[in-house]
Amino acid sequence: MAEDVAERRLTTWEFVKTLKERRVFVMLLLGMAAGLPFFLIFDTLSAWLRQEGLSLQTITAFSLATLSYSLKFVWAPMVDRVKIPVLEPLLGQRRSWMVLMQIIIIVGLWLIAGSDPSMNLTRVALLAVLVGFAGATQDIAIDAWRIEVVDKARFGVMAAAYQWGYRGAMITAGALPLFLAEAFSWNLSYAVMAGIMFVAIAAVLLAPRGGEVRVALVDHGLPRRPGPEVVEWAARLTLILLGALFAGSGLAANGTLLAGLVNLLGGTDAGAEAFKTAWEARPNGIFLQFGGVVAGLALIALACVPIPGVVTRPGAYLRRSYGQPLGDFFQRFGVKFGVLIMALICLYRLSDFVLNLMNPFYIDLGFSLSEIAEVRKVYGVVASLAGITFGAWMVSRFGIIKSMVIGVFASPLSNLVFVWLAVSGPNMAVLYGAITIDNFATGVAGTALIVYMSSLTSAGFTATQYALFSSLYAIFGKITASQSGRIVEETARAAEAGGFNSAIRGWFGRLPEGSLAEGAATAGVSAPSLGAGYVTFFLYSVLLGVFAIFLAFYVAKRQPEIEARGKGEA
Questions:
Q1: Residue 183: how many CB atoms within 10 A of its CB?
Q2: What is the CA radius of gyration of the chain?
Q3: Which of 64, 207, 275, 478 is the most buried (most CB within 10 A)?
Q4: Is 302 in a helix, a strand, or coil?
Q5: Residue 107 to residues 194, 512, 567: CA-CA distances in angstroms?
Q6: Are 212 and 148 in contact (CB under 8 A)?
Q7: What CA–CA distance (Å, rounded) separates 94 from 99?
C-alpha cells in the first residue's frame, strides 16, 4: 500500500519537531526493550557460562535460545489475531501482547538470576529459550505497533528511534552486566537486567493505541467435531513444528536439534553427530541449511492446505492465518510485481551481508585488536547513528519510494572505500574514513529498507507481513555470505597464478612490511595476491548491489501503476 505520491512530506523543521513527540520517545524505549533480551541470552550469558567452567561446545549450543528470532514469522499470525484476555480490552491488541511478553521476559531473567548454571544447566537453558521466545514475540508486536501508530510521513523517524534504542540496548546489555558481575555477582547482574525491563512496561503504558484492525479467526458456521478436530490439529501442528525446526535450524546454521531428531527416530549417536557436522560445515553446509529452510517452509505450507473435499475448522483457521496475509499482498501488488518486490527485499542489503569477514581483513592488514575495537565498535556506532538519523530525515523529506531508491545505492558504493583501505595498509586515518562512510551508509540503507517494508503491510496483517519481509533478506544474505572467505582465497590464488585479477597485485607494492603477510601465508599466496583477492571480493560485493539498484528503479517506475491498482482494490 505504498502510496508514495499521495503521502505527506515533512519539512526539515517539522522532522525536528517530531523528535519531541511522545510516540518517538516511546519507540526509543521499546527499541531498547527489544534489544535487551536478545543480547542478554545470546552474548552476555555466554560470558557467565564460561566463567562457570562450561565447555565452548555447551556454550555454543546456547545460541539455540535465539532461534525464535529466526522463526517469528511462524507464530506472527497469532499476534495479528488472538486477543489476550483481560489485557486486550485495557491496552489494545499490540500493547497487550507487548506487556504479556515483557512480564514473561522479566520473570525469565529473574529466574535466571536465581540460578546456578554449574548446578542446573538445564533450568538455565530452558529459561533462556523462554526469554528468547518472549523477546521474539515482543518484537512482532513492537514492529506492528510502530507501523500502525503513525502516518507514513513519520515512518522514518519511528524506524530511527527503534534503531537508536536497539543500539542503546546493545551497549547496556553488553557492558553493564559485565561490570556488575565483576563488582558483585552474575546473579545480581541479571536481577538488575530484569528490573530494567520494567521500563519497557512503563513505555507500553505511555504508548498510545495503534490503528488496529483485527481479522476474524475462523469461518463461522462450520460444524464443530471435537474428536476429529483434535486429531487434525495434532497432525497440522506437528507439521508446523517440524517445519519450524527445519527452517530455524537452517537460518541459525545449527544442527543440534535436528541431530536430536535423528536420535529420536532411531539413528545412532555417530550418525546424528555426522549429520550435525555436515549441517554446520563451512562453507558447504549452507546448501543443506538452505534446503532445510525450503523444506521447513514447505511443511508449514502443507499444514495449511485444506483436506481435499472437506472444509474443517482447523484447516480454515490455518488457511486464513497464513494464506490471507500472503494473498492480501499478492492481491494488492499482483503476482509478478509482488515477486519482484520480494526479490528487491532479498537483494537490497546483500552488499552488506557478504562483508562478514571484516575483522579478519583488518587483522590481516596489520591493525591491532584494540585499534579495531576503538574504531569499529565505539566510533562506528556513532557513525551508524548519524546514518540512521539522516535516513529518517530523508524518508520524511523525500518520501518512501525516493528514499528506497537513494538508499539502495548506499551499501554497494560504500563498499568501494574498503578497496582504498586495502591498498593503504594499516593507516588509522584511512580506517576512520572507511568506517565513517560504511557505517553511515549502512544506517541510511537500513532505515530506508525498514520503512519500505513497513509501507508494504496492510491493516489486519501488519505483524505477519512484516515478520515475513524481515526474514526474507536474511535467508539469501546468509547463503551469499557463507562463500565470502572462499571467494577471497580463490581469487587470491587466481591472482598468484596470473589470472584475470593479477594486475591488481601491483597496487600493493608499497604496503608496510608484514601487512597481509600472515593471512597470505595461511592462504598459501603472496601478500600482493591476498590483497588482490580482497579487492576482487569488494568489487564483487559492489556488483551484487547493482542487481538491487536495477530492481529498485524498476519498482519505483511502476509505482504509479501499483497505486492505481491499490485504489481499484480499495
A1: 9
A2: 25
A3: 207
A4: helix
A5: 7, 55, 47
A6: yes
A7: 9
What span, in angstroms and rounded, lies between the C-alpha atoms of 343 and 476? 10
Torsion of CA 289, 290, 293, 298, to 10 degrees: -130
Integer Cα distance of 87 and 97 in angstroms: 8
Query: Are 318 and 529 a contacting pair, CB within 8 Å?
Result: no
| Site of grid cell 517494508 | 453
The owner of cell 515512518 is 155
Phi, psi at 11, each rounded to 5°: -75, 170
Q: Which amino acid, 72? A: K
Any idea what the Cα angle at residue 249 is, between residues 447 and 448, rounded to 5°?
5
**CB neighbours of 368 closer than 8 A, spacing ≥ 6?**
none
Grid coordinates standing for 66? 535465539
The Cα-based distances of 15 to 11, 26, 78, 152, 410 in angstroms read 6, 17, 34, 13, 22
Q: Which three three-digit cell numbers place residue 451?
A: 520503512
SS (H, E, C) 480-527: HHCCHHHHHHHHHHHHHCCCCCHHHHHHHCCCCCCCCHHHHHHHCCCH
pLDDT one digit per residue (tens) for the chain, 570 residues = 334 445 677 777 777 788 888 889 999 999 999 999 988 887 788 888 877 777 666 666 676 777 788 788 888 888 888 889 999 888 888 899 999 999 999 999 999 998 888 788 888 888 988 999 999 999 999 999 999 888 888 888 999 999 999 988 888 887 888 888 888 888 999 999 999 999 999 999 998 877 666 665 555 566 777 788 889 889 999 998 898 888 878 877 778 888 888 888 888 888 888 888 888 887 677 788 888 888 988 998 888 888 887 778 888 888 888 888 888 888 888 888 888 999 999 889 888 888 878 888 888 888 888 888 888 878 888 899 999 999 999 998 888 899 999 999 998 889 899 999 999 988 999 999 999 999 999 999 999 999 999 988 887 788 888 988 887 776 677 667 777 888 888 899 999 899 888 899 889 888 888 888 888 888 888 989 999 999 999 999 899 889 899 999 998 888 777 766 655 555
Strand ranges (E), 297-388: none
The span from the CA of 204 to the CA of 25, in Å, is 11
